[in-house]
Records
---
Amino acid sequence: LSEPSKVSAATLRRIHEAIRVTGFVPNALAGALASQRSMLVSALVPSISNIVYASMIASFNERMRARGYQILLSETGFDPGDEEAFIATHLSRRPDAVLLTGIHHSAQARRMLLAVDIPVVEVWDISTTPIDICVGFSHVEAGRAAADFAVEAGYRRAACVSAGDERARRRQQAFSERFEERSGHVVSAAAFNEPASLANGRSGLSRLLEEQGFEGGVVFCSADLLA
Amino acid sequence: LSEPSKVSAATLRRIHEAIRVTGFVPNALAGALASQRSMLVSALVPSISNIVYASMIASFNERMRARGYQILLSETGFDPGDEEAFIATHLSRRPDAVLLTGIHHSAQARRMLLAVDIPVVEVWDISTTPIDICVGFSHVEAGRAAADFAVEAGYRRAACVSAGDERARRRQQAFSERFEERSGHVVSAAAFNEPASLANGRSGLSRLLEEQGFEGGVVFCSADLLA
């Protein structure tokens, strides 16, 4: 099969027919070991069912597939310690590249990623010290821009509903600082130690309204799901 | 590393320290070839960004991970021909099990899956002739139950907005037949040849209202996204 020129056309035809009928599939593990290319790309995201990561993975998958790669996907949650364990198992499969969410990884995870000679892409944040390649945006600038927008739209009071992950916290903090600086008013906050969900959004809003007496202002949510 | 009892405790400690510092990760491809177990489970779903499949994959991933398996995920679309190509690449990685969406697979896909001696689970439908294991529900009965519910709630007129996949069509057809049978009214329909989306839902409803003059009844949608 790897050197079809060595057999006659008729024999080759019979071989292919036998393969078709029996449903034989070549072993890609052996091929990957021999060629040092697995045609696998690892993708690690905090949450598969969150639409922002799911949409990213759907596009990423489509582009990679068009180039013959398959995606080995893991849902890591938001803890760098959990992520480290996933990175180790992913690298043990010898992927041809790795996609990581965020820039905060454990020291051991960074060491493992630096030791493999493959492209490592960090997305969803920006960094001056990427492991390899980083494509993303600034969460601090995003929070500040939202605060500027709210102040310029005439809002004098603001509150935040925020999920428990590190990026959400940075956006929320940047929003609050900038809004307080420009409006002179303290920003109320309802923060959760869990990922964003519709239920957290509802309970965050009712905390603001009922417990903190928030009214007549703008509410900054750390994610679509909360809003 | 595979026989730690052959070296002294001090040597083993030095080896482990060297591994930690250099970020060395063992090669799982070689291990999988030798042991005939890849600890990979293949999951094939039509769409990753559709919340019904994303939620299923999130739970499936969590359960499999708790048992030490990693998920090799592919988005197949709704065409059995495309699915066949994915099944071949997945099987070439020697997964320990396969999860498939739906019961309609190409003849060659069935042959390949029957030839491998691993669990194959079909979900999201039911069949009297599963490849191996089938866990799902009846789309025809679901459509009929919705029609019964609508008739019993007093609706005399009904319309359908339906996506282009085969399961959606079966639900819609079962709904229409049962509703027509029990109400004596013809069910209007806006059907798309694409997957369900919010945009299709909006345009389906406006087709029903503006072009077909539908009013005063119940609208059956083939998916949450359309509704």
---
Amino acid sequence: MIFCPGSITAFFSTLISENPLLSGSYGVGFTIDKGVFVEVEKAEKTEIIVNGQSWDFPTVQYVVNELAKDDVKVKIKMELPVGCGFGMSGASALATALSLNNFFELKKSFIELADLAHESEVINKTGLGDVICQTFGGLVVRKNACCPSKAAVERLIVDVNLDFLVLGKISTEEVLKDELKRKRINEVGMRCLEEFIRSPEFDNLFSIANRFSMETGLIDDEMRDIIEAVESNGGKAAMIMLGKAIFAYNGFDVLKEFGNPFKAKITCCGVQLV
Amino acid sequence: MIFCPGSITAFFSTLISENPLLSGSYGVGFTIDKGVFVEVEKAEKTEIIVNGQSWDFPTVQYVVNELAKDDVKVKIKMELPVGCGFGMSGASALATALSLNNFFELKKSFIELADLAHESEVINKTGLGDVICQTFGGLVVRKNACCPSKAAVERLIVDVNLDFLVLGKISTEEVLKDELKRKRINEVGMRCLEEFIRSPEFDNLFSIANRFSMETGLIDDEMRDIIEAVESNGGKAAMIMLGKAIFAYNGFDVLKEFGNPFKAKITCCGVQLV
């Protein structure tokens, strides 16, 4: 079975070109020890099953269309919610690509499969940087915006337990469709990235991520209140890009007042066999 | 500063082609939480310093020749011995490539830098698979023999503390120069890889690695005695490829009878910023 970690983006700026392999996002994100598990089996009719239910899942379907030599059932177990900034589309696409490669003995290279998953995310407008993060694993600094094989990345050593609270979904596509918003995101995101690269330490992630969400206007009052509550209690918190969701350090008790938080750990593992 | 983990190979088979990017080794290896730290600084004359001493280090020099725009001092801190199967040449080359890329703002992609480090290892005959393992990190199954950008790899989740004992060096070049020995290594190595892929579990690593070292004749009586001693005491142990060295699980006390063992942990982190 293939496991692919969820990926959380703290801040980003986008680059969309006609070539999906030259499209992506600059920024900083990290993989966590919760994600998706994928298994492929022979089937009469191709089907994508997520947590027991048949899904119309274009980002995975694209990968299936490109790689499957025959009808298959793609069984995906998802540990995190979709559309909330955990990179579940990218994780599903990447783990499916690796699973199909094994199942049909395609002998494609790891990076080639990662590029395909990235391409599918870009084309289906479900993500721009998650697959890069999930290919390499860890706290990943994306210093250019493109596919895994062309990625200029740095990984940082971190070993931290975080707390997460999901309040709702945000459509990446909807946000990026707004030209004015996207221009602002790109400007602020690039400044944030430069700042993080100057002192690439985990602690700086929260303050820069907060500046990003405020200056881009992506944060709302509810999330701002929660982050302030965590901070008043001595913790750190920031908004997850792009989800109506929060990641926090030392924030579990405060987050409990606002919903049902869960814990996960930053890991330096990317997609892997389990 | 860039850290690159040491890489230990359990069994392998080689493929040498005229193109270094299509040369490498099939096999199974893993990264550990000890390795090399590299820093680059401006200098009057290019120099490679390892643990405070000036070294003639062709595998690193090749990378410097390819990437440095000016004279630099490459300062390498090595936590593990050279020539004993810990992938110190590959680690140094890879970490130097990433450091020079940052220092001269070359904006090369991660995989491009990894390919260069691999190329240098192949050309200088210091290793064939370590850079792949160090690029991705973890317990890495190399299903083809080539450079990182063309690598078909799988990573396995493992979280294990191991014990290591170094008895002496083995020259990879010397072993691989012997045509008959290399043919035998390739035959046995390929069978071992197929067996491991059928049941890719950490526990199988030791038994398959032991079959490999026996059937290839790479092991000597001293190492065999030590492995048997660890096993009689309820642990597991195998020879490191290619070093006169042992890796063991639950073997520290027994290894102490034969020398000065040390501990390290399998990590899923590859080369990274620290």
